[in-house]
């Protein structure tokens, strides 16, 4: 069932993108987009009741993150409307509920208060309607956990950058209350330093003059730069990029840089002077093949086997023709001479006859 997660998420983002283009949080605008896309028909593809329940649970889990921060207020409203439509158009009985973790309930209550303060009555009505229908299931975790479940299974929380406001940490940090407090502290510090040192002392001149106004101007300049940067990025995404003339100049510049880099031959080091470096200049015309640069092909397998058998045959012939003299055997003639030496008869000397 997880193979439907990617296509379902892309369809939901497309629907929320159309709702974002309206620049409104009215339910009638969302209802018109819902009817034009016939979004409720996504439940008609599973006739089996068990598969319908699994798919409804998957659809609610995919849409539920758009109802929570860090998305903008309009996208969160669209996520609430989308949860409302999916909850009431699912085909399983009893209906599958929307999982909300306890850690996210504080953000949901703050979202309700913001909608009430802005007098978005349709948003408040849809939320209270879901509460009265008991559509929310309060859980410890936003998704179900299983024993030995893989951590990297494609269910990671990937935020859509188009639905998130640009970071405004500087504006949140430098507020009017903080600037007033900083001005009071700076004035108190300046008075203490003047009381300790005289007016002619150079330490008094080290105090930053108009610190609060400079800080406020820096924050305003950064916010304006950020807005201009986002506008330029949107123009580039819309296709309003550099002209064709600029692109051709850049291409020519890159081609010249590549030609200079590839046409330069580096001097060989002392350890590699025996290797000859050759520069092969290629033009658009005829290419002259460099025969000296071609590598000698190694002999084929057939030639190598023939050469091996030839060498083995010559060695075998040499071994058969060679005479071998073993230490335990001797030549027949040598054996005869040795026997003669052993059994040599020597005549006795004649004794004198008395």
Provide an overview of this structure.
The structure is a single chain. With 354 residues, the protein is mostly helical. The protein has 12 helices and 2 strands. The protein has helices at 5-21, 27-37, 49-63, 73-89, 105-117, 121-132, 169-173, 176-196, 211-237, 244-263, 301-321, 332-342, and strands at 98-101, 136-139. A two-stranded parallel ribbon has the order 1-2. Helix 1 (5-21) packs across helix 3, helix 3 (49-63) packs antiparallel against helix 4 and helix 4 (73-89) packs parallel to helix 6. It is extended and about 135 Å long. 10% of the residues are buried. Residues 279-289 have low confidence and may be disordered.
Termini Cα gap = 140 Å
SS field, number of helical segments? 12
Strand content: under 5%
Structural class: mainly alpha
Largest sheet: 2 strands, parallel
Could you state the order of secondary-structure elements as H and E? Answer: HHHHEHHEHHHHHH
Q: Please list the strands of the largest sheet in the order they lie side by side.
A: 1-2
General form: extended
Count of DSSP strands: 2
> Unreliable segments (pLDDT under 50, ≥5 consecutive)?
279-289
Rg (CA only): 47 Å
Average pLDDT, to the nearest integer?
A: 77
What is the helix content?
Answer: 40-55%
């Amino acid at each position: 069932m997880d193979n439907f997660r990617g296509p379902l998420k892309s369809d939901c983002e497309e629907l929320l993108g159309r709702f974002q283009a309206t620049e409104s949080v009215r339910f009638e605008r969302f209802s018109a987009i819902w009817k034009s896309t016939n979004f409720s028909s996504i439940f008609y593809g599973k006739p089996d009741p068990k598969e319908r329940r699994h798919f409804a649970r998957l659809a609610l889990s995919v849409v539920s993150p758009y109802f929570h921060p860090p998305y903008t207020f309009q996208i969160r409203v669209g996520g609430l409307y989308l949860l409302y439509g999916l909850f009431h158009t699912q085909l399983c009985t009893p209906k599958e509920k929307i999982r909300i973790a306890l850690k996210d309930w504080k953000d949901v209550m703050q979202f309700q208060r913001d909608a009430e303060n802005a007098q978005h009555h349709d948003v408040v009505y849809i939320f209270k309607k879901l509460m009265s229908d008991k559509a929310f299931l309060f859980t410890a975790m936003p998704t179900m956990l299983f024993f030995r479940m893989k951590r990297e299974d494609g269910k990671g929380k990937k935020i859509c950058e188009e639905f998130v406001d640009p970071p405004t940490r500087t504006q949140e940090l430098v507020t009017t209350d903080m600037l007033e407090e900083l001005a009071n502290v700076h004035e108190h510090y300046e008075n203490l330093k003047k009381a300790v040192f005289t007016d002619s002392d150079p330490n008094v001149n080290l105090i930053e003059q108009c610190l609060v106004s400079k800080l406020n101007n820096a924050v305003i300049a950064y916010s304006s730069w950020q807005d201009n940067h986002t506008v330029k990025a949107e123009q580039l995404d819309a296709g309003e990029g550099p002209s064709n003339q600029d692109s051709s100049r850049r291409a020519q510049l890159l081609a010249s840089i590549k030609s200079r880099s590839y046409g330069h031959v580096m001097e060989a080091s002392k350890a590699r002077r025996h290797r000859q470096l050759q520069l092969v200049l290629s033009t658009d015309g005829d290419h002259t093949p460099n025969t000296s640069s071609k590598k000698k092909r190694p002999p084929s397998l057939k030639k190598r086997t023939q050469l091996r058998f030839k060498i083995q045959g010559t060695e075998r012939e040499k071994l058969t023709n060679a005479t071998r003299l073993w230490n335990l055997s001797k030549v027949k003639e040598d054996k005869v001479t040795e026997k003669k030496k052993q059994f040599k008869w020597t005549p006795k000397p004649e004794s004198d006859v008395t």
